[in-house]
Amino acid sequence: MKISTGESSRSNYLRPELIKNLVKGVHGTLVECNTAYGGSRSTTARHRQAIAERGFNDIADIDIMDEEGMMQIPVADTKWIQYDIVGSHLQNYDLMINLAHFKGHAMGGFGGVLKNQSIGVAAASGKSYIHTAGRSTSGISNSNQDSFLESMAAAAQAVHNYFKQDGRDIVYINVMNNISIDCDCDGSPATPQLKDIGILASRDPVALDKACLDLVFNHQSVAGDDASSLIRRIENLHGTHTVEYAEQIGLGSQHYMLTDIDQSTSVTEKNTSPTRRYNVYTLDGKKLLSNAATLDGLQKGTYIINGEKKIIK
User: Fold this and answer.
1) Residue 277: its pLDDT value, please?
2) Least confident of 5-9, 11-15, 257-261
3) What pLDDT is recorded for position 182?
4) Other CB atoms closer than 10 Å to residue 186's CB: what's the count?
5) Contact between residue 210 and residue 244 where contact means Cβ atoms under 8 Å apart
6) Nearest in space to 136 (alpha carbons), one of 36, 42, 214
7) Is 180 within 8 Å of 228 (Cβ atoms)?
8) In 83-201, which ranges are continuous DSSP H helix?
């Protein structure tokens, strides 16, 4: 089970008391990798100390996956990164539960299962490799925001594909609680202004992060329950592009059916996308339409439409 153990006790990471029943129910091992920046989790020794202080040792075995080194796994999209550098212990597992805390992020705009699977599963040097869009295995600075977001999508796809072969599997969960504009990697995050929304799960990471984004962007804000600061952060950092690009490279679909399970165990289904939307790119990756309701106006030719190559006649 891939989680974030949080940069400090003040961070909004998923608390052990919240996740312990799930962890114990599947006999899970909690996995992490060391960070690429100085802090409480930059070395294995400090990371294990932080994990113990947070109480995670009380609910499960803990594995720092890059404690004994790293390995490379292939990426399908080599626009920016040529491989994904992950902790070597990843090869020890045949099922991953990507258990993410959905929240804002100071560099990516937001963090959900795609970030938890890309930056989160990467070894320390792999985190730098993604942040710098393949230019370096140290540091996290990058002047080209979209290259970083697209590298995250490519790395998330690499891990997804790794677990979709040889009898392995992967499932995805986003917990929408304590939704600050800041990530769990921030030791002093901003106070959440948005009330808890719920827990969402899917086999499709793109659909899952998209559904969570829609819940935020469509939220009717009032005093004490306000999504506006999180929306601004996501928009200012072009955060939705991670999901758009993940769909474009074939990791998943932004179209989903949201099934609402109430306390009486009955299930109500509602189609959150009654009108089909289109994301259209040229074959060389130039965006032409984003979340468009129609393809009217496109000239005849070949395009990438919702992640698939199609011909407009």
Assistant:
1) 64
2) 257-261
3) 97
4) 21
5) no
6) 36
7) no
8) 113-118, 124-131, 145-162
Which residue(s) pair with 201 in the sheet? Answer: 173
Residue type, 116: N
Q: What residues have CB less than 8 Å from 218, skipping those under 6 apart?
A: none
Distance (Å, whole) CA 180 – CA 188: 11
**What is the arithmetic mean of pLDDT over 67-88?**
97
| Rounded Cα–Cα distance for residues 71 and 49 (Å) | 25
Residues in Cβ contact with 45 at an 8 Å cutoff, skipping those fewer than 6 apart: none
Structure tokens at 2: 């891939």
Q: Which residue has the tokens 């499960």?
A: 60
Please enumerate in sequence order all residues whose Cβ is within 8 A of that of 123, keeping only pairs 6 or more positions apart, or say none: 33, 34, 65, 66, 69, 70, 85, 86, 87, 88
Residue 148 has pLDDT above 90, yes or no: yes
**pTM, entire model:** 0.84
Task: For the chain, give the percent of residues with pLDDT over 90.
Answer: 79
pLDDT of 20 > 60? The answer is yes
- pLDDT at site 276: 56
DSSP state of 167: T
279 residue type, one letter: N
The neighbour count for residue 53, using CB atoms within 10 Å, is: 14
Looking at the chain, list the stretches that DSSP marks H as alpha helix, in order from N- to C-terminal side: 16-25, 44-54, 113-118, 124-131, 145-162, 205-217, 228-236, 241-248
Q: Are strands 95-101 and 84-87 parallel, antiparallel or unpaired?
A: unpaired
